[in-house]
């Protein structure tokens, strides 16, 4: 695993070195081209702003009001129905949060890890869940919003399906590997 | 579906606050969230400008085309509707590589770039093209080899073995990715016939 950690540590500095050097030797006006490309960053940022704000407001009101905890409480019987222990219920807020907001999910995961301990079942499950799959809603609204797509068609269904599979497999693999 | 989920989260949140007798929470958290949105976008502008600048250099030096030629054949199988030499392929590959290496900040600019390229080949500009949906399915379920942030959290919480969850994470996210690609493939095939 150390090898991968090293690759991910060196990846950005190497790209920042190699790309401009190669471009220079291929007679690209490096600084001017860089600036021309960077200009697009501002435009894209401004274009995705409304989508970010819209999503964040709705998510924050939902979480801060305590509605997330209430919905999680309602979902508990479903978990018990599938034969999971009551202990599992602690993971429900994270499972709901994961597709909605990356920073929100990280907050919930951090809280769970500190409350139950990083090496407890809930701690390991929260870590696995947080590490797997991306925030479907953020990616969909921002990516589609940035190019003006309004009809997502079946994209959301696939994204959420992947999240559910991620949840089920996380529970299964953590149980299998550690217990 | 997005409209409904958005409305439900907002409305349920407001109703719950009202029932709890803490309606003022709605006001503060809505305002704070709006501010946070600007903050996130501003931060993104900086990172995005940096990566789009580098991306432009890579394009003009012919590096993106080179990468697309090496990894393209495997990726292109998932995107049969794209043109042979589509510039989207390079951006898609860069985005997925950044995701796999856990470089989340670098992944977003490449992803948005890929969407712009895909949009150029989209015949229905306000509707998602099949290639876009495949790309987002890959993107949202992509394997991360180093979940660096959560390892940091575990380290802070005095875990005996902070990195022990890497294996389970790869299995979980790998399964999610596999199912996403599989389902996407079948939906595309069914719609075509």
Question: If you had to describe this structure to a student in words, what would you say it looks like?
Answer:
The complex is a heterodimer of chains A (179) and B (193). With 179 residues, chain A is mainly α. Chain A has helices at 2-25, 30-64, 67-81, 92-97, 102-116, 121-131, 136-146, 155-178. Chain A has one domain. Chain A has 8 helices and no strands. The longest helix of chain A is centred in the N-terminal third of the chain and has 35 residues, at 30-64. The radius of gyration of chain A is 21 Å and the shape is globular. The two termini of chain A are 22 Å apart. By secondary structure, chain B is mainly α. Chain B has 2 domains: 24-128, no CATH class; 141-193. The radius of gyration of chain B is 20 Å and the shape is globular. Chains A and B meet through helix 1, helix 2, helix 3, helix 5 and helix 6 of A and helix 1, helix 2, helix 5, helix 6 and helix 7 of B.
How would the blueprint of this fold be written?
The complex is a heterodimer of chains A (179) and B (193).
Chain A: H1 2-25, H2 30-64, H3 67-81, H4 92-97, H5 102-116, H6 121-131, H7 136-146, H8 155-178
Chain B: H1 2-20, H2 24-60, H3 63-76, H4 87-100, H5 104-120, H6 130-140, H7 148-156, H8 165-192
Major β-sheet annotation of chain A: none
* Derived structural class of chain A: mainly alpha
Total strand count of chain B, please?
0
Distance between the termini of chain B: 25 Å
State the order of secondary-structure elements of chain B, H for helix, E for strand: HHHHHHHH
What is the percent of helical residues of chain A? over 70%
């Amino acid at each position: 695993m150390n090898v991968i950690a090293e690759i991910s540590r060196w990846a950005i500095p190497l790209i920042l070195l190699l790309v401009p050097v190669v471009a220079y030797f291929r007679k690209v006006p490096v600084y001017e081209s860089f600036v021309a490309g960077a200009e697009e960053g501002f435009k894209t940022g401004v274009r995705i702003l409304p989508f970010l704000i819209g999503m964040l407001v709705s998510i924050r009101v939902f979480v801060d009001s305590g509605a997330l905890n209430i919905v999680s409480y309602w979902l508990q019987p479903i978990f018990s129905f599938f034969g999971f222990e009551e202990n599992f219920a602690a993971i429900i807020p994270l499972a709901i949060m994961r597709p909605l907001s990356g920073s929100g999910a990280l907050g919930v995961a951090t809280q769970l890890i500190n409350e139950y301990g990083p090496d407890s079942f809930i701690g390991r499950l929260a870590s696995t869940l947080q590490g797997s799959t991306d925030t479907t809603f953020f990616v969909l609204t921002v990516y589609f919003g940035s190019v003006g797509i309004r009809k997502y068609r079946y994209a959301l269904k696939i994204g959420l399906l992947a999240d559910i599979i991620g949840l089920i497999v996380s529970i299964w693999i953590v149980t299998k590997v550690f217990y | 579906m997005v409209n409904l989920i958005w409305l439900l989260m907002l409305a349920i949140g407001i109703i719950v606050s009202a029932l709890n007798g803490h309606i003022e929470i709605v006001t503060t958290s809505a305002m704070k969230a709006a501010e946070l949105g600007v903050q996130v976008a501003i931060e993104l502008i900086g990172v995005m400008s940096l990566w789009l600048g580098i991306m432009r250099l890579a394009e003009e030096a012919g590096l993106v085309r080179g990468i697309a030629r090496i990894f393209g054949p495997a990726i292109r199988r998932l995107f049969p509707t794209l043109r042979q030499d589509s510039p989207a392929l390079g951006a898609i590959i860069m985005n997925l590589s950044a995701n796999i290496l856990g470089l989340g900040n670098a992944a977003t600019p490449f992803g948005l770039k890929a969407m712009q390229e895909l949009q150029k080949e989209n015949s229905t500009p306000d509707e998602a093209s099949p290639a876009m949906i495949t790309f987002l399915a890959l993107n949202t379920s992509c394997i991360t080899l180093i979940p660096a942030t959560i390892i940091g959290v575990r380290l802070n919480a005095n875990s005996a073995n902070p990195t022990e969850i890497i294996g389970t994470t790869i299995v979980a996210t790998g399964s999610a990715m596999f199912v996403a690609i599989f389902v996407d493939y079948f939906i595309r095939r069914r719609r075509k016939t």
